[in-house]
C-alpha cells in the first residue's frame, strides 16, 4: 500500500469513527429487541464534583449518552434543563470543562458519548479548536439543535475531519422538504422531537404526531432515528420504543438528581421500558 493510500485509508477511518460506534450501539440494541436507551445529563450538574458519579450511573444502563454543554440561552430546553444549565454555569462549568469531564468518563466507559450543544459555545472556543478538544476527549458525535444543516457547513465538515458524527433535529412542524434535508445531513442519528416546544413539557402519550413524522423521515434517513422531548418514565419510553430506534430521556434524570433519588435505579427502570413488544 502506498503512502498516499495509507493516508486516505486513515482519513476515511477517522471520518467514520464516531458514526460507526454510534451505529453499532443502535445495532446491538436492535438485535436485543430494544430501542437504544439514550440518557441526557447537563455537564457539571449538580456540581462538577458530583457529575461524574451521576454520569457513571447513567452510563451503566445507556446504549449512548448525551452530555449537554451548559448554555445561558438554551432555546430548545424546558425549565428543568435550563435551571440545571444555570446552576452548572454558576459553578464554573465551561465548554472546555465539559470536554474535560467527558474525557474523564471516556477513561472508564466505552459507551458512545455525544455532546449536545448550541453553536455559540463552539464559536466561543473556535470551531477547529472545539473539534480538536472533542476528539481528544473521546467524543463520538455532536447534536446541534440550533444549526440548520444548510446554513453552516464549516462545523459539519470540521466535525467529520475529527471523526465526529453530527445529528440534527426535526419536529412535528418540519416541512417534508426540511425533513428530507435534515435526514440526509445526519451522520450519527436523526433526532426527532416529539413535541412542538421545549423539553420536558408533554403530558399524556409520548407519541402524538411521532409515527407520521418518523414514516416521512425514514424515506430519507440513512441513520437510526431517536425520539426525545416528553419521555419521562418507563411507560412513555415503551411507547416511543415501538416506533423509534432510540429513546432520549433528560429532564427525568435532572429531576431525580434534584430530588435526591437513586439515578441509576431510575435509569434502569426507564431502560427496561425501551424493550419492544413481541
TrEMBL record:
Enzyme Commission number(s) from the entry: 4.2.1.20
Gene3D superfamilies linked to this entry: Aldolase class I
Record's keyword terms, sorted: Amino-acid biosynthesis, Aromatic amino acid biosynthesis, Lyase, Tryptophan biosynthesis
TM helices/strands, residue ranges: none
Catalytic activity: (1S,2R)-1-C-(indol-3-yl)glycerol 3-phosphate + L-serine = D-glyceraldehyde 3-phosphate + L-tryptophan + H2O
Protein function: The alpha subunit is responsible for the aldol cleavage of indoleglycerol phosphate to indole and glyceraldehyde 3-phosphate.
Quaternary structure note: Tetramer of two alpha and two beta chains.
Name this protein carries in UniProt: Tryptophan synthase alpha chain
UniProt organism field: Deinococcus hopiensis KR-140
